[in-house]
Specification:
The chain has 438 residues and is of the alpha/beta class. Helix content is 50%, strand content 8%. Among the domains are: 33-133, uronate isomerase, domain 2, chain A (Orthogonal Bundle); 183-342, Alpha-Beta Barrel (TIM Barrel), CATH 3.20.20.140. Strands 4-5-6-9-10 form a five-stranded parallel sheet. Helix 16 crosses helix 17 (382-407). The longest helix has 26 residues, at 382-407. The radius of gyration is 22 Å and the shape is globular. Bound molecules: D-arabinohydroxamic acid and zinc ion (ZN).
C-alpha cells in the first residue's frame, strides 16, 4: 500500500466538514435529556446513561444474560421496566466490565469516552455521570460536533409521532438552530395507512381508509402544511423489504400503496423540488417484546425500485438498503438510473467490515457520485465514534482507488483529493438540496 498517498488522504479526510444526512438527533429546543434526571420526554438524547441504554446494547446484553430458564435471567418486559440508569449499569457491567468491549457499538463507547478525555475502563458509571452532569448541553453539542468533524446534522422529524407533533405545535421555531436541519419523515402514510388515516381524520383532514373522496388531496394538504411548518431538506419514508410498487395492480392493497406513494409522497416531493429518501429493508417488530430493539431486516426486490425510478425520472430518490446482499444490485441499478442516489451504510451495515465492503463496491461502480455515510445517531455522542471511524474507512477506500489510478499512470493532486472528499462527505448532498425549493 502506498503509505504516502494513504497518509495524504487520511490527513485531508480529517479536515473536511461533514454533513450528516440522517440522524435521530434533535436541536435542544425539542427537549434534551438531563443526565441523572429521567423523564421529561426528551427528544435529544445525550450522556453516558443514554449512550448505554441505546437499543443496540439491548440486543447485545440479552445475549450475555442467563437464559430465561436460569436464575438471574431477565425478560425484555422486566428490562424495559427498569429506570434508564439501571439499564445502563447492567450494560456497563455485562458488556464492558465482565468482558472486553468488542462489538462495534461497545468499542464506539470506548472511543467516545477517550475522545472526551475520560478513562474508558471505570468499574462503574459514577465518574462518568458526574462529568456529564456538569456539561452545558449547547456547549457540549458544539464540542461533540467538533470532535466528530460534523458541521451540519440532519434530523428525522416525524409528524405522526405525537410527542414530536406537540413540540412543533407548541413552538413553530423549535428547529431554529443552524447546526440542525429538518426532514419530514412519514412512514405511516405508506407503511401503516389505517393508523395514518385515523390520525389524519382526528386532525381534521377529510380522509377515508379506501382513499375515496378527496383523500389524496387531503394527504397532500397535510404534507404541504408540514413542509411549510418544518421547511425540510428532503422528504423521507422507510419501506418494509416486501413492499411492491405496482400502480396497475388489481390487488386493492397494492393499488392503494402505489396511489399514496406516487400521488402523495412523490408528487409532493416533485412540487416542492425535494428529494424523497427511501430507507428499505427493515422488518419492524420481529421480536415485539424487545420494543425499539425488536426490528430485523430482509432482502428487497430491486425491481420495485426500478419501477419507482422509471415512473418518476424527474425526482431524485435518496436510497439506502438494509440488507448486505442488496448492495451490489443497488449500485448497478444506480448506474442505470441517475435519479437514484445511494447513501449510507445503514444500521446493521454501519460496521467496520461492511463500511469497507460497501464503500469499495460503490467507488468501483459509481466513482464519487454517491453519499457514502450517515451516522443514524440517536444519542449525541455517538457522532464521535461513528464519524471518526467512517471518515477513516472512507479515506482508506478512496486512497485504494487513487493507488489504482496511479498504478495506471495518473498522479492525483491534493486539491483533487480534497474535492473528492468534499463531494462524498458534504457536496453531493448539498448540490441536490440546493437544486430544490425549500
Ligand atoms: O428507521 C430508521 O431510521 C432506523 O435508523 C431506525 O431508527 C433504527 O431503530 C435505528 O436507530 N438504527 O440505527
Ligand atoms: Zn435511522
Amino acid at each position: 500500500m502506498d503509505d504516502g498517498l494513504q497518509q495524504r488522504v487520511e490527513q485531508i479526510a480529517a479536515s473536511i466538514p461533514i454533513t450528516d444526512i440522517h440522524t435521530h438527533l434533535y436541536s435542544p429546543a425539542f427537549g434534551a435529556s438531563r443526565p441523572g434526571d429521567p423523564g421529561g420526554d426528551p427528544l435529544l438524547l445525550w450522556g453516558i446513561d443514554e449512550l448505554l441504554a441505546y437499543h443496540y446494547f439491548v440486543d447485545e446484553v440479552f445475549r450475555v444474560l442467563p437464559a430465561r430458564s436460569e436464575p438471574g435471567s431477565l425478560g425484555p418486559a422486566q428490562f424495559w421496566a427498569m429506570p434508564v440508569a439501571d439499564r445502563a449499569d447492567l450494560v456497563w457491567q455485562k458488556l464492558f466490565v465482565e468482558r472486553p468491549p468488542v462489538s462495534e457499538a461497545c468499542v464506539g463507547v470506548v472511543d467516545v469516552l477517550t475522545a472526551l478525555g475520560l478513562e474508558p475502563d471505570e468499574p462503574d458509571l459514577t465518574r462518568y455521570r458526574s462529568w456529564f452532569a456538569a456539561r452545558d448541553i449547547d456547549a457540549h453539542i458544539d464540542e461533540v460536533m467538533r470532535l466528530a468533524g460534523v458541521t451540519k446534522l440532519v434530523m428525522t422529524n416525524e409528524p405522526f409521532t405525537d410527542l414530536e407533533r406537540s413540540r412543533w405545535l407548541e413552538n413553530p421555531r423549535v428547529a431554529d438552530d443552524p447546526r440542525f436541519a429538518p426532514v419530514v419523515r412519514v412512514d405511516p402514510i405508506v407503511e401503516r395507512w389505517p393508523e395514518a388515516c385515523r390520525k389524519l381524520a382526528a386532525w381534521g383532514y377529510g380522509v377515508a381508509d379506501d382513499l375515496s373522496g378527496d383523500t389524496i388531496g387531503e394527504v397532500r394538504r397535510f404534507l404541504d402544511e408540514w413542509i411549510e411548518r418544518a421547511r425540510p431538506e428532503y422528504l423521507a419514508c422507510s419501506l418494509s423489504p416486501g413492499y411492491r410498487h405496482e400502480p396497475d395492480s388489481d390487488d386493492p392493497a397494492l393499488h392503494d400503496f402505489a396511489r399514496l406513494f406516487d400521488e402523495c409522497l412523490v408528487a409532493t416531493a416533485r412540487e416542492h423540488g425535494l428529494m424523497l429518501a427511501l430507507m428499505i429493508g427493515a422488518n419492524r417488530g420481529i421480536h415485539p417484546e424487545m420494543q425499539i430493539a425488536g426490528d430485523g431486516l430482509g432482502k428487497t426486490d430491486i425491481n420495485q425500485l426500478v419501477s419507482i425510478a422509471r415512473t418518476h425520472p424527474d425526482v431524485t430518490f435518496l436510497v439506502t438498503l438494509l440488507s448486505r446482499e442488496d448492495q451490489h444490485e443497488l449500485c448497478v441499478t444506480a448506474r442505470k438510473f441517475a435519479n437514484i442516489l445511494p447513501f449510507g451504510c445503514w444500521w446493521y451495515l454501519n460496521t467496520t467490515s461492511q463500511i469497507r465492503e460497501i464503500t469499495r463496491m460503490r467507488l468501483e461502480l459509481l466513482g464519487t457520485a454517491f453519499i457514502p455515510q450517515h451516522s443514524d445517531a440517536r444519542v449525541l455522542e455517538q457522532l464521535i465514534y461513528k464519524w471518526r471511524q467512517s471518515r477513516r474507512l472512507i479515506g482508506e477506500c478512496l486512497a485504494e482507488r487513487y493507488i489504482e489510478a496511479e498504478r495506471a499512470g495518473l498522479s492525483v493532486s491534493d486539491a483533487a483529493i480534497e474535492a473528492d472528499l468534499d463531494r462524498l462527505l458534504r457536496g453531493n448532498y448539498a448540490a441536490r438540496i440546493s437544486a430544490g425549493v425549500h
